[in-house]
Amino acid sequence: MLENDVSKTGEESFILGTVSIDPSEQEKVVGRFKADRDGLCRHFVGRWADFEPVRRQYLENDC
Question: How far apart are CA 50 and CA 44, in angstroms?
Fold first, then answer.
């Protein structure tokens, strides 16, 4: 499903399976993915004010 969503945008996607050596390795991998995701979220939230004029214009025009 995710692969199809990405392909619709014209980009390439790959689904890779992983096998952890042990539970601590799995925690490291999952932790790294979560850290990257959280970093992107912080970046977006940090720029939230940049979108306020767009939101106001949208509401004023009854879009």
Answer: 10
7-23: pLDDT as tens digits: 888 888 888 887 777 88
CB 6 within 8 A of CB 15: no
Residues in the chain: 63
Contact 17, 3 (CB under 8 A): no
| Residue 5 CB partners (closer than 8 Å, separation 6+) | none
Residues whose CB is less than 8 angstroms from the CB of residue 3 and which lie 6 or more positions away in sequence, other chains included: 13, 14, 15
Only one residue has tokens 């952890």, namely 20
Q: Is the pTM of this model over 0.85?
A: no
Mean pLDDT (the chain) is: 83
